[in-house]
């Protein structure tokens, strides 16, 4: 199997052909050029294929050290090895500083040349794999990957796209399970920081006494068990984006430290006396109304106003019901591939039930429902039998008299019927939500003929 493509630029024909032959014996494909002009032409044409450029320093129409930036500009993922008959230390230092992989003296052994070329080619292959992975991640978390055509989703996406290229702090507001982290990832991927880390932190997932040390890090001996220095998540995200999910869960003392990060890009680790500087973009998310939390004294108003520089309301699934069929088809095919099953689609009755469902868990709940249905499906099409129990328990429609009757008895009957529907007929859960005992609920069901 070929090792890859190399570009060899040298005006000495016999030496160039000899080196090409040596490299070809190692299963490399070697492109040859006698001068810089022809070499750059070949590099432009084969930029996607060339792993390594081997260039003489003294060429008839250019100087290798001056040409180095042009080689890197045309093929940024390729490595460049400069060769010279009369090497000098200053030239070698300059070559390495400007991005050359190595600086070799002509006449060295072929074995040494092959070792350097192999190492350069391996580095170039690795860089290509990383670039491919970054493209896949970028495509997976881009705005274009968002599924749906509803007005509410498109409006939220439009706002997020406007904020993405800036360094402004963004606050994503929306119910749990609506896809706020997907928005945060898309903002990061559409920003100049896309090649730097994206670090996500769920503030409700950490015990409150540990969240501060996880965010800011600590010095050795800061507390019992701090045996070594530890970088916090803010430092891990340096140069990139820190996503704080459920930021409303931050303790007030942590909020004060985080406010300083937003204002100065500095913080002090636990047990340290000197501030640490970072360059981090903050994207935060909450399912609470932070303005009301601030007015009630549960959240610092000054931090709220720093976070709410640019607010994006992420709609819940009930606000974008027209997107349910698209999302359902996507999740069905996703889980079909994961389970290695062939599932062609959903019956119309299934889509109708999905449209009518009250999606309190939003997109996350829909995803879970489709995963379960894909596992249970016997045929190649999802049927209503594959849906969870709550989709089979539908309350009887109120009579005409009931619809116009607002007596206390009728209102109570409607409420019990609705809660039984929402809980899929689970009597214990329905009683808990209604705030009555289970025995009382059974008596009411019998009394109202439910």
Automatic annotation (TrEMBL):
Pfam families named among the record's database cross-references: AAA_lid_14, HTH_8, Response_reg, Sigma54_activat
Keyword Nucleotide-binding listed: yes
Domain Response regulatory: 5-121
4-aspartylphosphate modified-residue sites: 56
InterPro entries assigned: AAA+_ATPase (IPR003593), AAA_lid_NorR (IPR058031), CheY-like_superfamily (IPR011006), Homeodomain-like_sf (IPR009057), HTH_Fis (IPR002197), P-loop_NTPase (IPR027417), Sig_transdc_resp-reg_receiver (IPR001789), Sigma_54_int (IPR002078)
SMART domains associated with the record: AAA (SM00382), REC (SM00448)
Keywords, comma-separated and alphabetical: ATP-binding, Nucleotide-binding, Phosphoprotein, Transcription, Transcription regulation
Residues covered by the Sigma-54 factor interaction domain: 146-375
Gene3D superfamilies the UniProt entry points to: 1.10.8.60, 3.40.50.2300, Homeodomain-like (1.10.10.60), P-loop containing nucleotide triphosphate hydrolases (3.40.50.300)
Protein name stated in the entry: Sigma-54 dependent transcriptional regulator
Lineage: Bacteria, Pseudomonadati, Bacteroidota, Cytophagia, Cytophagales
